[in-house]
Amino acid sequence: VAAIAVVTSSGDDTPIVDLEVGDCFDLPAGDADDGTLDTVATVDCAQPHLAEVVVDGLLNTDDAPYPPEDELFASVERECRDAGVVESDAFGLLPIAPTIELWESFEGRFLCVAIPFGGVPVTGSARSG
């Protein structure tokens, strides 16, 4: 299972921490080779895209200490899986977990991103309902 950690950055693209459910985007060149992602180029979901935010949430609403990485990603993966929001088995869910800086300053905000299997761009929404 692949997972990505979120970092912040200043740039022309949309910061990943500003994405919301229903936002579609393309993954940056290199697909976060270092395991982190800071900004993405958002697109209208009616246009071809490779990713859509289907779940967002907070893991640190009670000022808990930053968990070990395996526990953190297991928590985000569980949240993604339990949400059950993808309408077909043509998509995988990519958990995006916060770094320690975002754990504290953004209450451990995480995302679950639907990515089409095979890396072929899609149009429309992956969300059910």
Structural key phrases:
single chain, 129 residues, alpha+beta, 2 helices, 30% strand, disordered N terminus
Question: What report would you give on this structure?
Answer:
By secondary structure, this protein is of the alpha+beta class. 16% of the residues lie in helices and 30% in strands. It contains two helices and eight strands. The protein has helices at 69-83, 100-105, and strands spanning 4-6, 14-15, 24-26, 36-37, 39-43, 51-58, 91-98, 109-116. The protein has an eight-stranded mixed β-sheet. The longest helix has 15 residues, at 69-83. It is globular, with a radius of gyration of 14 Å. It starts with a strand and ends in a 13-residue tail after the last strand. Mean pLDDT is 82; it is low at 1-11.
Produce the secondary structure layout.
Blueprint: E1 4-6, E2 14-15, E3 24-26, E4 36-37, E5 39-43, E6 51-58, H1 69-83, E7 91-98, H2 100-105, E8 109-116
Parallel strand pairs: 1-4, 1-7
Antiparallel strand pairs: 2-5, 3-5, 3-6, 6-8, 7-8
* Poorly predicted sequence stretches spanning 5 or more consecutive residues: 1-11
Order of helices and strands: EEEEEEHEHE
* Main β-sheet, spatial strand arrangement: 2-5-3-6-8-7-1-4
Total beta strand runs: 8
Radius of gyration: 14 Å
Structural class: alpha+beta
Offer a quick outline of the entry.
The protein is built from 2 helices and 8 strands; from the N terminus they run E-E-E-E-E-E-H-E-H-E. With 129 residues, it is α+β, with helices and mostly antiparallel strands.
